[in-house]
Structures are given as C-alpha cells and as structure tokens.
Queue: 3 jobs
Job 1
Amino acid sequence: MTRRRVQLLGALLVSAFLPYFIRLALTPGSAGDPPALNTFGGNAVAVFIAFWVRLSVEPFPGVRSSSLNLPVASASHALVVVAIVLLRLPYDRSFLLAGYIVHLLWLYAIYFFAQRRDDLAIAIVPFGDHRGLTDIETIDWRVMQRPSFDELDGCEAIVADFGADMPAEWEAFLADAAVDGRVVYQVKQLFESLTGRVEIEHISENGFGSLMPARGYFHFKEMLDLSVAVVALPVVVPVIAVVALAILVEGKGPVFFRQDRVGHGGRMFRVMKFRTMQHFDEDAPPGDRERAITLIADVRITPLGRILRHARIDELPQLWNILRGEMSWIGPRPEAEELSSWYTDEIPFYRYRHVVKPGISGWAQVNQGHVADVDEVHRKLHYDFYYIKYFSPWLDLLILFRTVKTMLTGFGAR
C-alpha cells in the first residue's frame, strides 16, 4: 500500500504540480488564471483516473504493469481532454500535453527501477493437491516445513488446499496468519488468479454458485455495445468498402462469408465475416466438421485473407451482428453449429458458455488464440468460464487493451 501511495503522489507531483509551477514561473501572476487552473485540474484528474483503472485491472492474471502504462495513461488523459473540450473550458494545450508525457515517463520509471526487479514468492502449506500451481514457473514457490511465521520471510502470500485434512496446529497457523493481515489463498482461487482459467470437471465444483454473469452490467453492456457500434459506423463502413473492393479484385467469389453459429442462450444466428478462403459452396450439407475447422497454415486461405486474419480485420462485418443485438464487442467467440454440437458431446458443461453474448474479441482469444482440437477447446472453455465468473467492465477493458496488441502482433491468427 505504501508503494501505491508513492506512485500516486509521485504521479501527481510530476504530472499536475510540476507543469503548473513551471507555467507560473514562465508567466508570473497567472496562478489564478482559468487556463492554468483547468490544466492543473485536468492533469490531476487524469492521474487519479489512471490510478483507479490500474487498481481495477491489475488483479486479473497475466497483467504486466509495463503493458498497462501506455494505454491507461493515454486513455485517462484523452478522456480529460474530451471533457474539457465538450465543456468548453479554457486550458493550456502545451502544459496539458506535458502533463501526459511526464506522467507516462513516471510510470515507466517506477516499473524499470522498482517493479521489474520484484520476484513474487508464495508459501505453500504442504497438505493437499498443489500440482497445478507449482507448474506455474513465474512464481517462487516455497513449501513450508513447519507452521511458523519465520518461514514467511519474503513471501507475499500463503496458499493452502482448504479441502485437505491437515493437523490442528496448521489450521491454527492459517487462522493466525489471516488475523495478522497475511493474504491466505485457496488453491483453486489462486490458480484462477494466475492462469485466467476456471477448470470445471464436476458441476458441484464450479465455484460460481450459478453460472450467471452480473445482470446489471449485462444489460448496461448491451446498451454500450449498441452505442459504440453506432458511433463506429462512419469509421468502419469506409474500411469495409475498401476491403470488399480488394476481395473482389483478388478473385471470384462473394465478399462476405456467412455461417450459422450458436449465440446467446443457444439461439442460432448467421455471423458475417469477410471471406478469407477460396470460395466453396455455403449451401453444402452441414455436418462437415473438417470443413468448419481452420488448420495451421490452411491452404484454403487466400493471400489477402491471411493479411485480414492477421490483423483481425476479417471480423469487421460483425458490426452488423452487434447492431442486430446478436453479438457483443467482447465475449466468447461464437462457434459454428457443427463444431458446437461436436464440442457439446465431447466436453462437460460446454453449453454453459452461452449464458453471455458471443463477442468479436474475448478472454480466450487474447490469451490462447485460435484452437481446433478437443483438448485445446477444453482449455479455451476454462478461459470462457473465467470470463463469465469475473464478468465486469474492468475485465472487458483489459481485453480491449490486449485486443489492440493482438491486432498489431497477429497473436493466435490462422
């Protein structure tokens, strides 16, 4: 907590106070000028927004501080600029920009000189099953030999299998550790936190209470999806037109690929994508599982299609599905009807992923990428269940940040 305070206070000093005092030094007597005060206030608000977003997003697994610095700082300062412009407040453009730059430099300085050197160590109570955890190599796991606080030196937390039989002195130790303010994790809870997956083998083990997302955010997200889609139309439609023309020039066949997929509540809908493969008969008899699967280096993909898939541009026509209320911007990817039926027969609880709307991008896509065989799909399902369990605007925001990175790197594309 002390480190958090230092980060916040330091960011306020360099991003808000420093530009303000430099401006006063350059223009004496301007301390009460509206442009100076609005610029100071804008930079300060941006710092608090960025700090709040980071605290909300960082608990999710796989989040590196260095990867959040640029998008979080940029988004918070951009939001402040939009508010200032909409409210028609006078401001100093140069010092507003300076506040953003030094804020970003401060965040990276904190990372390189402090956070990057930290090695997370977690103590393990030696009872029960911890095999899934100890396979995670990014943590320094320290198996305890006796129930003593001396063995917790340098450890950030303790993890125990609460379902295991353990001696009374160990149970008392865990209670004392919790009372002392130590973080005590249950094995499954920590596994989910570190991997971003919820493993389910038996319905009694799901840990959900019920597999239902937060209904308030669910309905708010529907309105947000529609609003963003309407605002994005003027930008997306010209891109769609250019890509459509390129597909027509490349060769014969339709511009769009349409396929029946399983959506929210198990209802069928027809998804739209840019055609990225050689044309085949869309009205061919269903049930051809091999045709529905995209393989690694699939020979059916056209040269232009490979570029569209790499940057995920082939998904843009699904804006139409969002406008129709069939899809969301973020959620589990909708599967083809043939594959969904196959997976439902092969994988326990597969149909539960339909409790939320499918999305253009999702938690599984930014963590795992494209999958095909049953084992990969089973692992992907664990990511989908994690998304449902921790369904929130903060997880969606993290997926949004990672989606931009995925589009730039082509991670998981086939």
Job 2
Amino acid sequence: MTETTGSDGSWLAVAALVVVAVAVAAVVPSLTSARPANEVPVGDVGANATNPTAESWTSVPSVEMALASAPSGLPEAGNVSVNHARVRAATNDSHVFVRVSWDDATADRNVSGPRAFADAVAVQFPENESARPPIAMGGTDNRVNVWYWTGDGRTEELLAGGAGTTTPFERSSVVSEAVHENGEWHVTFAREAAAAGNRTDLSAEQDIDLSVAVWNGSHHERAGRKAVSEWHYLAMGPGPQGPPYETILWTVAGLAILFATVVTIEGVRRTRGEAA
C-alpha cells in the first residue's frame, strides 16, 4: 500500500513537471518572436541589396501594411486600387535598404500621353527622428524626408513640411532599383545610413518611423490621389526584440521550471512521508 501511494505520487509529479516544461517551451518562443504592432524588423543583407530579387532578401522578414486613400481635395481621391504593400528593411555596414512590394497587374512606365500616369511608390521618414510629424507630408515643426520612385525611371529625394511644400534635394543621395514580375512590383531604395543637412539620420541605434505610399498609374492615380499606410517604425533600436528582452523571457521561463520542480519534489516527499 505504501509503495503504491509513493509510486502514484512520483508519476503525478513527473507528469506535472512534463506539462509545465512543455507549456513553457511552447509559449516562450512565441513571446520572443512576437512583434509589436507596426514594427518593421531590420535584417542584414549584403552589398547587392539594391537588387530587389537578391537572394539575401529572402531571409529578411516581411511586414504587410494596410493602405487606404489619402485625404485629398482631388476628384475621386478616395478611389484607389492598392490595398496592401509588403515592406522589408535591412542594413549592412554602411547603408539602409527598404524594399516595397505590391500587387499590380500592369507595369505603367509610359507617361507620354495626356492621360498617362506612371506607377510610383514613396517611403517617408521624419527629418527629426526624435518626434513623429503629421503623416500627411509632415509639418512646419517637423518635416519629412521622402524617397520617391516612379515607373518612368526617376528616383527623387524630397523634403516636405506639409502638403504643397515638397522640395527636391539638389543632389539625391537615394538610389533605387525596380522589378515587375508575376503581377507584382518590387522596388528597393538604398541610402547611406549616416546623413546630415535636413536628411534623416539612420545610423543611430534607435527606432525610426516610416510610412509608404503607392500610386497605380493605369488607375489614374497621381499626386494626392494615392494609397497610403499609417506610421510604422524600423526596429533599429534596442527595443523589445533585442537580446535583453529574450534573455529576460528565458530567465523567467527557467525560474518557472525550477520552481515547478522544487514544488513537485516537495510534494512527492510529503506524499511518501504520509504514506510511511
């Protein structure tokens, strides 16, 4: 009778420990890999990352951003055709890269006709990365940098402090490459991380806000008639996805397992003591 009770208690203790261990093993990885809302992870890529189809992009996480029409006084400004864009971001030793992809059955490059408009995409950053400006082209107290590509081959770097104030930099420091295949555009922007002179400095270890805008030329989208995202941010700082956060989680998980083990052993010991 005594051996049976002790044996049952031991098996229950082992079962409880296994359940705790399995639960922690299942939950902790999901916590460490979970991303806060509106975060764009930043991966590592090689020197050829300006090519949207470079192999190194396959290992960079992609974030799907919802797009909606931008507030505008233009006729049919709310009638836009692109609902989502997929964004990837990465760095290497010197540059920051942003790749934007979206569905578009036609590659609109020709703008020679009076009703012809090119496809286009833009990425927007605050000039002063310590504050979040108004998303509609910034404001007078915090302007925005805009990296702008159009299907006719132009790439521009712009500065804006509100609607109607967009001004191109005299010399652009942004380069881009674009590929249209299988009904999708893939456009990659690249710029040196360090910058000055009204340009967003991307070299500091801190999160940087960004938003995107997309124009579908065959849908007559241009200027303020565009699909835009909310503010997201490049996770370039020591945020919750960094090693300290993961270390804390794993430490808590280890302590939980240790605590469960101690409680289980004590329970077994008492069971055997009472049975004796």
Job 3
Amino acid sequence: MFWTADRIYSQGIEQAQKRIYEFFLDAVRRKSPDQVLVDFRNLFINFSDSSNPEITQALDQILTAYNEKEFFYTLRRCCYILINNWTVSNKRVYIQSLIDIFKHPSIHKKPKSIKLRTLRIWLQMFVSSEDFQSLQLFTLHLEGHGSHDQNWGNRFASYLLAYQYTNPASPQEQRQAANLLAQKMKDKFKFDLAMYTARVGTQSAPQNHPSNPTSLSNNVLNLVTLMLTKKSVLNCQQLAVNFLENIEGLSYQDFKVGLLKYIDFSMADAEISETVQTKLHNGLWDLKSNHHDQPVSALLILKTAKYLISEITISDREQPTELFNILLHHTNPINLVMLLVKLLLLNESIRPFLELRVASIIKYYSQYSESKCKSVIAFIDMLNIALAIYAGETRYNLVRMTPYELSDSSEGNTQSDSQISSFDTREYRIFSQIR
C-alpha cells in the first residue's frame, strides 16, 4: 500500500483518539465517578496528568496537529462514553458534575504555553457551541435540577434529542445516549399521563392526585376522553387499519385518491377547510407523478407520508410552512395533531422523521417567550397525548361509572373543528394498562 503523508497523519490522529477512548472506557468501568471526573479534568482542562502520561501525549498529538475538528469530536465522544455508562449504571447524577467542569475559570485564563492556550481557546469555542447545548440536555430531569430558568423548549427535550440520535455523523455513544434519554423522557410522560388520568375522579384527596404532565389544564381529560370514545372523529386507529387493507394492489395514483380521503377532515370555517385541502391536494398530486401508473409500494407510502408531514410542519429552510400556521393559529390545534397521527399510523418508521420536524418547530419558536408560544406548546402537548394513546405501549380504556347511556357530547363530536367536549369526571374513569 502506498502511504502518503496525509494518510500517515490521519492514522496518527486516529490512534491517538483510540487511546483516549479506551482509557475512559476502562476508567468509567473500574473507577468511581469522582475519580473519572478528576481524570477528565486533568486531561481536557489542565492538560497535565502525571499519572497518565500516555493519554496526555495522545491529546498532545491532536493539539500539535492543530486539528480543531478532531479535537471537538474526541471531546464529545469522551463525554458521551461517560454519560452512557453512568446512565446504564444508574449514576446519571454525575452528568451535572461533568457539565460543571466546563465552567472552570481556568478555561478563560491565558497561559504561556502555546498548546495549552490552543486548548483553552478550543474549550471556550466548545462551551459556546450547539454541541455543548446538546450536552446540557442530558442534565434535564435530573433530581434536584431546577427548570424554572430553562427555556420552555427544554420541556420537550425528547424531541430535541432527535437531532442527536438520528445524525449518523454523531459518535455512536452520543446517538446511544440521546436515544436512551429520549426514551426515558417519553416513558416518563406516558407514565405520568396514565397516573394523572387514572386518579382524577377518584375519592382520594386532591393533594394526593398526580400532577398534570401537560400545560392544558384539566382539558387534558376532555382530550383523552374524546380520543378514546369509539364514535369520536379523533379515534383514528381503526381508520388506519382499514385504509392499509384497502390500498393493497392499487396504483400509486389511486393510492393518492384514497389517502386524501383518509386524511380528510372538516373544520368550522369552510374557507379555511377548503384552503387546506386544496393545498394538500395540489402538492400531493405533483409528488412523483411519473409513478402514478406503478403499484403503490411501502417506499412510496413512506416518501408520501414524509412529504405531507413536511408540508404541514416546517420546511427544509427551517421555516414553519403556510399550512402549519393556518392549522395552528386559525383552527383548533387538534386538527394538526390528528393529521400527523394519521400519517404516522401508516408506518411506525416515520416516527423519527416526525420527531425531527417537531424538534425543528421547537427550535424555531424557542427564540420567543413562553407567553408568545402558547398555541405551539398546546399543539406539542396534544401531540404527546395522541402519541401516548395511539402509538404507545399503554392501552387506555374509558369506562362510564354511572348506569346511563353515553350522551351525544361524550359519544364523540362529529361537528367540525373536533372541539373538545365537556367531561364530567364524576361519571367516567380512565383505566390504563400495558398492551
């Protein structure tokens, strides 16, 4: 093999990184978290560790090469090696201590050593980067972690983590850690929702009731009830099953016709309803029109669903679409939620794509105050509830506790705009169980 100077240089960097990764993998498994934090601080902050000269030399090789990109990658991967192992061993509390290392005042000092000065400059850049903001997400929901000073978007961090666990360029440890934490947050919301809906209406003292996991006040009960009622326009699971059965053997063009009927809905404002449906129809009809005569395939269904999700959420330019603004601000946000859920029910593999789009929405609107984003927050809360009911592992059951027939209002609102009906907690109980 012909070894060029660039290849030799690249191999040297990779070997140096490998030694650092192996060191921290071994340390996090053998040493206490406090000892590991000392090793991390000595290497990346002080750049001086007499007990581990080989590892210091490995970092020195990266600094000597003046390879800023590889330094950031090495630093991130080491952080996520620790976070992953502490998560699995139930020692997540030390993640905050890891973040605090980057607040050490020595990072902002100007040493005489050129290499150490380079290291400090890079650390300052890292602390100001999106990579560090992503790292800080792992301190959310730690016991005793205050959230009063956090941006409201951090309440929906399970979506923001999608940027990390779906990005193939991220270190494997980062993708694993992000996926673990996102799933933990989703599971916690599902559990809190199940406990909240199950306990409301019982005879226990109000102070013993679990807290509401959303910002929807008690309307969350009305919403859950509407989704559970068999005749409700929001009960879309069986619709999805029927639609998927009926499209077998259809051409792509006929599939589109059926899809438009499947996602069709009516709203109180006829003009808005027509505008939304016309825009969806026109865009959908132009999509891959050269495939109209071909049999519809799983791949075409997936691409079509992703296209529609993009059309009703946020564009590739990270701007909310016109349809998103219409559905969010001129109708009940539940209309937008149910459109997304209907599309998700076509193929569960769509979910990471949907989560990325919601993450982009959160990122766009989180520059504004919570008071200006109430409709966006309500939309995300409603989406979380819908996903917990329709795409989660928990089965919700609505049971009337009084021996009367269901009234029209609770049988399901067939009126336009899918308005949330009144809900008497004295008459109904919501039971939940693992599917």
